[in-house]
């Protein structure tokens, strides 16, 4: 059995990890940390886990976590980088769901996240945990930087076009909507139901923290920098990411539906919908799947890609477990076969 630890077990991604790992046949949840709830049973905070998780929250101490085979960091940015080096030195694999190791440039990371990076030497070792592009590297990694939810949906949507050089890379548009759980489990005015219910708004139009991560991933796919306008929106739903992606085609000869189907035909967690379909977030809620639909309005030069995920599963905790499975030589979908919730 794989002994797993979760640092930050009281947030949305932390409890989503607990929900998934509770039924994972190869995992024992050995340590769950929370400074605020240390000494409290996990199922007292989350009654949905009664009968599945018997752990008690503990303080996040390296000596305790070092007894694990793998430690997930479901923490705010700036936490994992303070402990990762010590855990790796003790032989523990680290999977970070925050942004601490996603960007390859420490100075750029500091500019976007407002603090100095505590262990920039580890950035080069960290493997970006998008299995659809880094599967082989993930298998041998010690340190995984899980992608953000917005970057996951945008990259999976654009990648086939970029890899084939079919679109103008200088003028990409990602118009992306997120449920309020993407803001995390905290008391914040903008996330209150009376503030966001029956409303819809864009935010961080001048620059969102996920922008450099998306640009970095897309540039690797095309071999050169990309021009991307990324506008996130907050929608009055709990879970879900809907990315509407726009690009201008430079060729009319490619069968785009066939291109996407061929690209993702062996990917168990990427589902290319039939021609003419419209992806919607309810069809992936609670699952680790990304669903993609391809459109060319009026048969013109503009291609519109619809890419949807559950931000807490494929956009966070499910993808983290997918990475863990690869790191420990398990089938990629172990513990991740849940069908989406409907309605």
From TrEMBL:
Enzyme Commission (EC) number: 1.2.1.38
Any one biological process term the GO annotation gives: L-arginine biosynthetic process
NADP as UniProt keyword: yes
Keyword Oxidoreductase attached: yes
Domain Semialdehyde dehydrogenase NAD-binding: 3-141
GO CC terms, sorted: cytoplasm
Pfam families: Semialdhyde_dh, Semialdhyde_dhC_1
Family: Belongs to the NAGSA dehydrogenase family. Type 1 subfamily.
UniProt xrefs under NCBIfam families: argC (TIGR01850)
Stated role: Catalyzes the NADPH-dependent reduction of N-acetyl-5-glutamyl phosphate to yield N-acetyl-L-glutamate 5-semialdehyde.
Protein name: N-acetyl-gamma-glutamyl-phosphate reductase
Gene field: argC
């Amino acid at each position: 059995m794989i002994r797993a630890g979760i640092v930050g077990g009281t947030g949305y991604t932390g409890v989503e990890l607990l929900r998934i790992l509770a039924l994972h046949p190869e995992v024992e949840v050995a340590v769950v940390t929370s400074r605020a709830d240390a000494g409290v049973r996990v199922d007292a905070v989350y009654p949905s886990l009664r009968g599945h998780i018997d752990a008690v929250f503990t303080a996040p101490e390296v000596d305790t976590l070092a007894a694990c085979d793998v430690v997930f960091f479901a923490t705010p940015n700036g936490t994992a980088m303070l402990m990762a080096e010590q855990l790796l030195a003790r032989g523990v694999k680290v999977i970070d769901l925050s942004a601490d190791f996603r960007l390859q440039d420490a100075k750029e990371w500091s500019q976007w996240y407002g603090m100095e990076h505590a262990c920039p030497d580890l950035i080069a070792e960290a493997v970006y945990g998008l299995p659809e592009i880094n599967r082989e590297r993930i298998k041998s990694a010690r340190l995984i930087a899980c992608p953000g939810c917005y970057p996951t949906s945008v990259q999976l949507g654009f990648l086939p076009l970029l890899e084939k050089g079919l679109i103008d890379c200088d003028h990409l548009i990602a118009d992306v909507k997120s449920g309020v759980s993407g803001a995390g489990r905290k008391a914040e005015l903008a996330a209150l139901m009376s503030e966001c219910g029956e409303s819809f708004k864009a935010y961080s139009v001048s620059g969102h923290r996920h922008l450099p991560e998306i640009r970095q991933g897309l540039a690797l796919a095309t071999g050169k920098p990309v021009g991307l306008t990324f506008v996130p929106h907050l929608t009055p739903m709990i879970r879900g990411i809907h990315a509407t992606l726009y690009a201008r085609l430079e060729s009319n000869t490619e069968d785009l539906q066939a291109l996407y189907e061929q690209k993702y035909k062996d990917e168990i967690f990427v589902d290319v919908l039939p021609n003419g379909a419209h992806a919607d977030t309810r069809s992936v809620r609670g699952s680790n799947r990304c669903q993609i639909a391809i459109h060319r309005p009026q048969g013109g030069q503009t291609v519109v890609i619809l890419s949807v995920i559950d931000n807490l599963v494929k956009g966070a905790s499910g993808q983290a477990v997918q990475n863990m499975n690869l790191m420990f030589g398990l089938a990629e979908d172990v513990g991740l076969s849940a069908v989406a919730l409907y309605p």
